[in-house]
């Protein structure tokens, strides 16, 4: 009940600052796969994105807790370290699949974002590119230790979905730490679509070396 209330409050607040539109239900899905919203200014977009991340983080944490509870009840708890796929499920960060695009429209900048869930592509990308940030090289495991940080990283879409991303191409995904992930989406405001594939390279060049 509390989660439903949080969802309603989030949606009502978001609609005040944008024209929130749910994506249509896809064949084989029990519900819509996300939503699209246009914001009139940067501040409204930032507030909406932060609220979205807060909500999805809460939902992901609750889902993980429920999954762990079911495993205990069913007697499926195993000793020792967990497998990579199991850890990925537990560590899934909802901000992985946020994609922002910037469109110039008159005097306003309109921002759109979508939330897409595709764990299989994420797993394929991380098997190929690893768990270090593609921009700064940060490793959650090295910094926080294996017990907390192993197999944890966000995933970034190089070419956003709204710009014609190939939905089944895992090579369009790259691992990114939380800081670089937020910064690269700010960087996209300055880039032309033709430069999106160089976004990580451009972001890396802006990082101040100690």
List the helices and strands and how they pair.
Blueprint (H helix, E strand, L loop, with lengths): L1 H16 L3 E2 L12 E2 L5 H32 L10 H8 L6 E8 L2 E8 L3 H11 L10 H5 L1 H4 L4 E4 L15 E4 L1 H10 L11 H8 L4
Antiparallel strand pairs: 1-2, 3-4, 5-6
Helix pairs in contact: 1-2
Gross morphology is: globular
- Reading the helices and strands in chain order gives HEEHHEEHHHEEHH
Mean pLDDT value: 68
Q: What is the helix content?
A: 40-55%
**Cross-sheet strand order for the largest sheet:** 1-2
Question: How does this structure look, described?
Answer:
The protein is of the alpha+beta class. The protein has one domain. Helix content is 45%, strand content 13%. It has a two-stranded antiparallel ribbon with strand order 1-2. Strand 3 and strand 4 form a beta hairpin. The longest helix is centred in the first third of the chain and has 32 residues. The termini are far apart. The relative contact order is 0.11. The N terminus is likely disordered.
């Amino acid at each position: 009940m509390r989660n439903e209330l949080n969802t309603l409050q989030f949606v009502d607040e978001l609609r005040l600052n944008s024209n929130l539109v749910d994506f249509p239900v896809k064949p084989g899905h029990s519900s819509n796969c996300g939503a699209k919203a246009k914001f009139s200014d940067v501040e409204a977009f930032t507030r909406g994105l932060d609220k979205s991340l807060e909500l999805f983080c809460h939902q992901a944490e609750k889902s993980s807790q429920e999954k762990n509870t079911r495993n205990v009840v069913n007697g499926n708890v195993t000793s020792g370290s967990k497998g990579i796929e199991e850890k990925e499920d537990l560590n899934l960060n909802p901000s992985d699949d946020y994609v922002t695009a910037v469109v110039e429209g008159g005097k306003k900048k309109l921002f759109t974002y979508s939330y897409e869930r595709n764990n299989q592509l994420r797993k394929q990308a991380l098997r190929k590119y690893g768990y270090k940030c593609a921009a700064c090289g940060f490793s959650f495991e090295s910094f926080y230790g294996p017990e907390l940080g192993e197999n944890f990283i966000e995933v970034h879409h190089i070419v956003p979905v709204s710009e014609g991303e190939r939905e089944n191409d895992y090579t369009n995904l790259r691992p990114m730490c939380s800081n670089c992930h937020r910064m690269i989406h700010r960087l996209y405001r300055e880039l032309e679509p033709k430069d999106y594939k160089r976004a990580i390279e451009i972001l890396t060049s802006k990082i101040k070396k100690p």
